[in-house]
UniProtKB/TrEMBL annotation:
GO cellular component assignments: nucleus
UniProt-recorded name of the protein: PHF7 protein
Keywords: Metal-binding, Zinc, Zinc-finger
One Pfam family here: zf-HC5HC2H
Domain PHD-type: start-end pairs: 1-65
GO molecular function annotations of the record: zinc ion binding
Domain RING-type: 80-127
Organism: Cardinalis cardinalis (Northern cardinal)
Top-level taxon of the source organism: Eukaryota
């Protein structure tokens, strides 16, 4: 973005109210034509919104988000394939499934954690399908890591070498781009206080100046 474009986006965001928390400064808008819903990135999971972390980084509100088309799961097998806890009987925002085997069911937060942990080896935890499983998860708003699986990491590589180094906001406002970071100020990069797998510029977070931590939509 040019400086003028950044200022315009900031001004427009300051006038938009988040339809979830009702506070001003919502920088993300539903990409469905005719929909005027806007929201903050941290509010997205509470409003069951979906952001696609590839291509144009499109975002959708709860009404227009993509839906999975899977056959009903047998009532005797309503457990998450990852954590083994109970899942909902029907596919929903919180309960997802594998498009390949049609049998695996898992919580959204469970499959998101697996995606970040498995990296390039991400696949269905039950049938081990990678395509079209990976494409479906991307479409449903699961963020994938381009790193090798965590279990293949070099044990000699320290945590500081694996730190997230880019802004993952749907709309990054930094004139220097997503990779630009500064030690202080609006372009300071905050890592998720829970998983540290996602980062965001302080100004792109839509949080107030008094906030000193940030948690990603997955956590």
């Amino acid at each position: 973005f040019l400086v003028g474009d950044t200022r315009r986006i900031i001004r427009e965001a300051a006038q938009k109210s988040c339809f979830i928390c009702r506070k001003m400064g919502a920088t993300i808008t539903c990409c469905q034509t005719g929909c005027d819903r806007a929201f903050h990135l941290p509010c997205a999971p509470h409003g069951q919104c979906v952001t696609q972390y590839f291509g144009a980084y499109r975002s959708f509100c709860w009404e227009h988000r993509p839906q999975q088309a899977l056959r009903p799961c047998p009532s005797h097998d309503n457990t998450c394939s990852i954590c083994l806890d109970t899942v909902e009987d029907n596919i929903s925002y919180k309960t997802m499934g594998c498009p390949a085997c049609q049998d695996a069911r898992f919580h959204r937060h469970c499959i998101q954690k697996l995606a970040l942990y498995a990296g390039t080896d991400f696949r269905c935890p039950r049938c081990l399908n990678q395509e079209p499983f990976m494409t479906e998860m991307l479409t449903m708003g699961i963020r994938l890591s381009k790193r090798p699986p965590s279990w293949q990491s070099d044990p000699e590589v320290g945590p500081s070498d694996q730190r997230q180094g880019r802004c993952d906001a749907t709309t990054c406002l930094c004139p220097g781009g997503r990779e630009h970071t500064e030690a202080h100020g609006p372009w300071q990069l905050w890592l998720c206080s829970s998983c540290a797998a996602e980062g965001i510029h302080r100004l792109c977070s839509s949080l107030g100046n008094n906030t000193c931590s940030w948690e990603c939509s997955t956590c």
